Amino acid sequence: MAQTLFIVGVNHQTAPVAVRERLAYAESDIAQALVRLKQKVASVAEAAILSTCNRVEVVGVAADPEKASDEIAAFLAADRGVDRSAFADALYRMQGREAARHLFRVGASLDSMVVGEPQILGQLKLAYAQAAQSGTVGLVLHRAFHKAFSTAKRIRKNTLIGHGAVSVGSAAVALASQIFDKFSDKTVMLIGAGRMAELTARQLKTIGIESLIITSRTFDNAVTLARDLGGTAVPFDNYKPYLRIADVVIGSVSVTKPIFGPEEFEAIIKERRYKPMFLIDLGVPRNFDERLNSIGNVYLYDIDDLGQVIDKTRAEREKEADKAEEIVEQELEAFERWMAGLDLVPTIKDIRYSIERLRELELGRNRGWIASLEPSERERVESLTRSLTNKLLHRILLGLRQGTNSADDNAYAAEVARRLLCGEFDLDESEFEAIEEDDDGGI
Amino acid sequence: METLWLLPAVGCYTLSAILFLSDRMSGKARAGAAALFLLGAGAVLHALDLTARGLQAGNIPVANFAEALSFLAWVTALAALVLIVRLRMMVIGAYAAPAVAIALGVSSAMASQGRVVLPAPLRSVWLPIHVSLAIVGYAMFILAASVSLVYLAYESRLKAKRPLKSDGDRMPSLEKLDRINYSLLVWGFVMLSAAIITGAIWADATWGHFWSWEPKESWSLVIWILYAGLLESRLTVGWRGRRAAALTIVVFAVLVSSFVGVSLVFPGKHGGTFG
């Protein structure tokens, strides 16, 4: 019976986090869970579990995917101790081409909450590695996962799906990299130690900014954050002198009016000898006067400006996603062809064996006169028989592999070929001989 | 005087310019490698052309305006290749390649006037030194102006809050553009100074006086002073960024108009070249 790829699971589109978190497996539990699954769900031939904060999915292979899906849903409920009714509506089941498409789309980050985010591919690779370790990966999952990886890679390479900034922090980093060349000699200053300012500062640290100055109305907050991020806290009533060494300034204090006017800032930039400054205004109401942006070498982005950058990225990524979907379809075709060919594998093996066996039988029957030949002539007889059987085999395989679009057609063709070519020659040898004697007589 | 190599060189440069420009317009980097290859191929063919002319003339081929322009175009192409390859400044191709293509195109259109012979008093060991220095200097100024144009374009995008084309990470940063602009100006200035000094020494050897206030000499001095001022303002006041880029372009415009004007209107003893 043909094996079919299938997927059962929930994701961020079908289930709220309250459901996902109850079904999710910890990374260290997955190997054990796969072993339990294999024990309890006998109808599953191969299985892998993909569990991230956005999805819990079982990717499996079974002869009867309907039945296997049901059993896996029951297994998940029992294994995670979740009432089945709690996630029954959120659960999706896919099989065959649809399941393969889903797997490829997940790997390519087309099914992610933020399309194009890069983590999912690593998570998928981990899921595969864990399943391989638990011994629940077979021929089909091996192929399906690797095809998903290569599809994701091809999409990364040929589309801009992963480009651009999708968070305030990454937008800040992207802008900073357009202004500054080197980061190790730059200083970031935080005016206000809020959560968003902290996240932005952390992102900026990832690209190599080392020096950090933090000031906050509540000095303790500045000190805590400075300790946490490795910076220097300065008192809020005397932070302005530090501005002249700050290349990036992140403002996030609550104010009623901007904390600097343009004149004051003009003096600062002059003191800096016009070295560029990147001002990030995360405050609402805004911390920096918007006129600062018109000062030479000062670049001011407020929260809406950053939002626009992010929106643009999202729009661009969506456009790129269309291209990515096309690539998924192409790769799906290739995978389907492989799956269809898979049904033929045992048949082809049998046919090859039968024909080779026939050849050996014939050679054996003519052993006598062949032995009387010169070695070079013996060689030629041998090679003649081999070339004849190879040509025959080649034609048969070609015929079988052609038009292998649907698995059903394939199975039928395979069955016919098997019936025609894989008889039990040993038993029917007398019959063969009868035919051959006729032939001899004919000649 | 035509050589076999000239037209293919012009062709390569032109194609390269078109590819660079189309990438720049679309904001994508599809044809970058091909454009770069064509620019390189153009420079090789161009070098063959210059060599053939040089061998025929027995000296570096700068006997008239067309030849000097051709030589300048070649040095600019080489310097642009260095910038693009070493500093990953693909965007500079969109400015440098068209400039090179146009310069060589103009030069080849003007050059079909038979064999040019350098007047006897100018045949001297100082000729290649003086001319090469001046031309390398001008090439630096051409590239400095190109880098400045890129700077202004990027800067206005950032200021207008329209940054981040999808090829965001391939764009050089403003800081890098500014730094390269400065280096090019310094090198251009050093070369120009050396060209003026060697020119004066050569004039003294040939005519017995260092300086004769002919139009070319006077304008060279003006240009030298302008570039000196540009560098000085950066060193003392710290002017950089937009203002420095805009001034680089203005001074370059003065350079081009004065020298083209002088070369064509008052040939003087520079014989219509700008070397």
Walk me through the topology.
The complex is a heterodimer of chains A (443) and B (275).
Chain A: E1 4-11, H1 17-23, H2 30-40, E2 44-51, E3 55-62, H3 65-80, H4 84-87, E4 92-95, H5 97-107, H6 119-134, H7 139-158, H8 168-179, E5 187-191, H9 195-206, E6 211-215, H10 219-229, E7 232-233, E8 248-251, H11 262-271, E9 277-281, E10 298-302, H12 303-365, H13 367-371, H14 375-401, H15 407-421, H16 429-442
Parallel strand pairs in A: 5-6, 5-8, 6-7, 8-9, 9-10
Antiparallel strand pairs in A: 1-3, 1-4, 2-3
Chain B: H1 6-26, H2 32-57, H3 65-87, H4 93-110, H5 126-159, H6 174-207, H7 215-236, H8 242-265
Features:
heterodimer; A: 443 residues; alpha/beta; Beta Polymerase, domain 2; six-stranded parallel beta sheet; 10 strands; B: 275 residues; mainly alpha; 2 domains; 8 helices
How is the CATH topology of the largest domain in chain A named?
Beta Polymerase, domain 2
Oligomer: heterodimer
Which parts of chain A are unreliable, with pLDDT below 50 for 5 consecutive residues or more? Answer: 426-432, 434-443
- Name the overall outline of chain B: globular
Task: Output the CATH class name of the largest domain in chain A.
Answer: Alpha Beta
Rg of chain B, nearest Å: 19 Å
Question: What can you tell me about this protein's structure?
Answer:
The complex is a heterodimer of chains A (443) and B (275). Chain A is α/β, with parallel strands linked by helices. Chain A folds into three domains: 4-162, Beta Polymerase, domain 2, CATH 3.30.460; 168-310, NAD(P)-binding Rossmann-like Domain (Rossmann fold, 3-Layer(aba) Sandwich), CATH 3.40.50.720; 335-442, no CATH class. Chain A has helices at 17-23, 30-40, 65-80, 84-87, 97-107, 119-134, 139-158, 168-179, 195-206, 219-229, 262-271, 303-365, 367-371, 375-401, 407-421, 429-442, and strands spanning 4-11, 44-51, 55-62, 92-95, 187-191, 211-215, 232-233, 248-251, 277-281, 298-302. In chain A, α8 (168-179) crosses α9 (195-206). The model of chain A is unreliable at 426-432 and 434-443 (pLDDT under 50). Chain B contains eight helices and no strands. The longest helix of chain B is centred in the middle third of the chain and has 34 residues, at 126-159. Chain B is mainly alpha-helical and 275 residues long. The model of chain B has no long low-confidence stretch (mean pLDDT 84). The chains are: A alpha/beta (443), B mainly alpha (275). The interface between A and B is medium-sized, with 29 and 24 residues.
